[in-house]
Amino acid sequence: MPVTEKDIIICALSSISFLNQYEKNILFKKLDSSNAIALLSLKAIESLTGKSHRHAKFDGVSVLHDAKISAAILNARKISYCIYEDKEYPQLLKEIPDFPFVLFYRGNISVLNKKCVSVVGTRHLTPDGAEAAYAFGYDAAMSGQTVVSGLAFGADCKAHKGAVCAAFDSMADNYEKACDCGKTAAVLPCGIDAVVPLSNRKLAEHILQSGGCILSEYAPGTESLPFRYVQRNRIIAGLAEATVVIQAPVGSGALITADFALGYNRDVVFHESAISAEAQKVSDLALHKLKTQVFCKEQKKSKLARNIQSYIESGAPVIKNYEEYKACMSDLPGKHSLQLSLNLEGV
């Protein structure tokens, strides 16, 4: 199919970082053609959205040029997308205040409108942490849940692999049963025409082959940058009723995802491997490194404030396996998150 005006406009709006999702939606409804993007000025955008962006920079010609390239990739790679108003857009994600304006995806996005659990953790897993992430992903998928993670090294890819193997095992065992088996979804910090890290490319293919989904809020051609990993984490947290942390040394990005989840009134649960003796050794090394970086002003001191102990001491549940997770979540979703958030405020 040829590239459409809508494709170009969606790609263009997704790239304007100083606009929030509501402002992008206003422009989407008011732009009558992609060429209108090149004619836009910052003053015109402010007039249309009713909000000042005096410190922002905007070049409509450049934005349109890049959007046409993104739309061409979109078309060539058969990448789909959905916006907030589309029925395919994940329902739970609609409930967070900073939901993405658009989701670009490959595979079966409907798996994100089923029961989802997010699994996160460090890239530097201990052997018991790797086993825990894989087993949890496998059991969660076997139980019919969609396992959401970020395709990174460590906990992410182990959880994805567990869910993929569950799907393939179900297919081999019984095709009808395979339809009830959960899948896995990977959220990327870049355009989904690429895979980050590249070495997980085969895993990404397996996710799609097993009926899962790969998604991103970034238009094709967008490179991964440090701040995009943090933005990606909010989507991982927003797609599920709970986030399970496998292992996470102080300063870990997994704890950023946990904070996002609590901010969205979602539950945060820790696997017992996070407090094992081996995990503590990894955490001690990470703490020493982070203190050095803070001293050299390479990292903010605030990163030292969040560690697994502070969450657990504030009331975060600790589970051994997926069965204990199910028992923990048998209460109404969000029951643990409010009190945990209140307790952490004093940390």
Task: Report on the architecture of this protein.
- This protein is of the alpha/beta class and 347 residues long.
- 49% of the residues lie in helices and 11% in strands.
- Helix 12 (253-263) links the parallel strand 7 (242-245) and strand 8 (267-271).
- Helix 1 (5-14) packs across helix 5 (60-76).
Task: Show the helix and strand layout.
Elements: H1 5-14, H2 21-30, H3 35-39, H4 42-49, H5 60-76, E1 80-83, H6 91-94, E2 102-107, E3 116-120, H7 127-142, E4 146-149, H8 155-173, H9 175-180, E5 184-187, H10 201-209, E6 213-216, H11 226-238, E7 242-245, H12 253-263, E8 267-271, H13 277-295, H14 308-313, E9 318-319, H15 322-328, H16 335-344
Compact overview of the structure:
The chain has 347 residues and is an alpha/beta fold.
